[in-house]
């Protein structure tokens, strides 16, 4: 389906997202494929149990036969019988910078993907369509990395301490001031790991007696942080404002279960760009709802910071909104900035509270100085503080590449998900047998792709996920598109019934008024 919104009150431009449904026969054949795979899985397990086939997986010891199974239970069934058949498409080791092209170490298997061995051959100049290198800052240019080299020689590689002890350097203070300035907020705090930025800080902000309203497609780091917090969690349908408003209204009316007391806090957890769907959060409507019902908003901009917005300042800038509309701004440096770590930004009171109460600040080792300098140089480039317009050019080039790549895929007849401006482009494969065939054939054409299947996606929605980069040239994208056109015909992947989707809206749009 195609969901287009043009609401003069909230949206300053048309908001278009594509979620076309596949024909019914595709869903039937997908379930049939999993069914056949499951039947053969049980047959293989039977043969292993009777010694007719070699057992390659971990097995229970005879002394533990009366214990609850540790390995050979149904949770492991999918891994050993279905995933193992296509395992060669993941964890491929590369041996170069993950730029627009990379070098890949060739490996082969002699036992149907149970083990691998390296051939010693290097596959050169594979077009990289899988890394989150949105702005092309994952690079090895000597001039670009000059300041990083200087900081490496000055500080070394590690801190060996936490932020609260001996681990706060002048580079961290400089970076935090720069992040706050970049985002237009009062203060910011940086952390050495992006995943932990969510999972270790959400428990510091909410706890027992609080309510978390979480989008059903939120990243695992948000889900883990919510679970660790001890707060009550309720899920709303992806980007569905009617579902979110119903939960907010019920939370206000009914309060906590049993006691009916008012919730201590209500916090909404959303992402800027959803990394598996390619969709962009409906931020204006969510801000309207959070103001209407007096809730807090936690926005994860891991994939959107640097990638969208006129100057790369994320979805807040993309929608022309104020950073003050979002209570907790979170993002990572692992994607657009070609580094590692994450940040939380907002009001000074919020950041000061986290400096004292964040588990990551208390227990985790600080961000290493060369990484901090890499983020500083990339952010200064985006802000134009390096005296060039190179950062702005990268943001614009990413937008051009994204729209061109998505438009061409639509025209070819593929079903792709997400927003027209999202550099995350999921191409639907559906059937389990096509996951491995797609990735292997693309690698034969010197194109590296990421394929994703159940349980990371719904069972009927296996996909290839492309990440467009500003570093991709038009020639690279055309090479990939030509290969996809050919492979789409060979594997029968062009399921779209509309070259340019014109579907009814996913749900009726409700108009929300922004309140002061």
Automatic annotation (TrEMBL):
Ranges of residues in domain Aminotransferase class I/classII large: 124-484
Cofactor requirement: pyridoxal 5'-phosphate
Pathway note: Sphingolipid metabolism; Lipid metabolism; sphingolipid metabolism
Gene Ontology CC: one annotated term: endoplasmic reticulum membrane
Entry keywords, A to Z: Acyltransferase, Endoplasmic reticulum, Lipid metabolism, Membrane, Pyridoxal phosphate, Sphingolipid metabolism, Transferase, Transmembrane, Transmembrane helix
Location within or outside the cell: Endoplasmic reticulum membrane
Topology of this chain in the membrane: Single-pass membrane protein
Family of this protein: Belongs to the class-II pyridoxal-phosphate-dependent aminotransferase family.
Protein's recorded name: serine C-palmitoyltransferase
Record organism: Eurypyga helias
